Amino acid sequence: MRKQTRPEEPEVLRSHQEKWNRQWRELRERNPSAKFAWYETGGKSAREWILQDLRGMNQGHCSFCDGYPVETVTSEPVEHFRPKSNPKFHDLAFAWDNLFYCCNACQSHKGEQWEDHLIKPDEPCYEFDRYFRFLDGRIEPVSGCDETVRLRAEATIRIFGLNERNLPRHRKLEFEKVVEDHGSGSG
After folding, report:
1. Which of 20, 156, 175, 178 is placed for a possible disulfide with 119 were both Cys, Cβ 3.0 to 4.6 Å?
2. H or E element that contains 185
3. For the segment 74-116, what is each residue's pLDDT rounded down to a tens digit?
4. Structural domain boundaries of the chain?
5. Of the candidates 45, 111, 47, 102, the residue with the CA atom closest to the CA atom of residue 83
6. Read out DSSP for 63-122?
């Protein structure tokens, strides 16, 4: 999970998010099982308006597992970090700082799970090495950290499934490739 710097909020959200969040909250209050849909303006959905900015925030990588390129293997989901289905977070469904570019696998694994300990990759104090280490392709909490750091790392690994699927194997292969490229004098 690489550090991300969030660009300025897109105009479409500055102009519409308060109204859209209110509409979403009211819809869910009337019908708790209502399905989320991106509201539209100017002939495009809010998702279409913001996707390029989210994609650019982490150079087309998944915000959580770093999978790349997301757009060629998935439908480019937008992840609501704080789940839009949770009544505590209905007012964040269209909040810029709650939205991340994500792969289908991470989004599916997370689903509507939430823990206050989750690490946001755009937190001002977030640095990979502060929370995580690589161990044979797996991501583990960094050794010797305090309990809060360990709990946050464990929750993030578990909820996004960062050691599930083929991720550890792919990370190990990428690492070996980098080591091999540096050893051969290329790159």
Report:
1. 156
2. none
3. 577 899 999 999 999 999 999 999 999 998 889 999 999 999 9
4. 11-183
5. 111
6. TTT--S-HHHHS---EEESS-TTSGGGGGGTT-GGGEEE--HHHHHHHTT---TTPPPTT
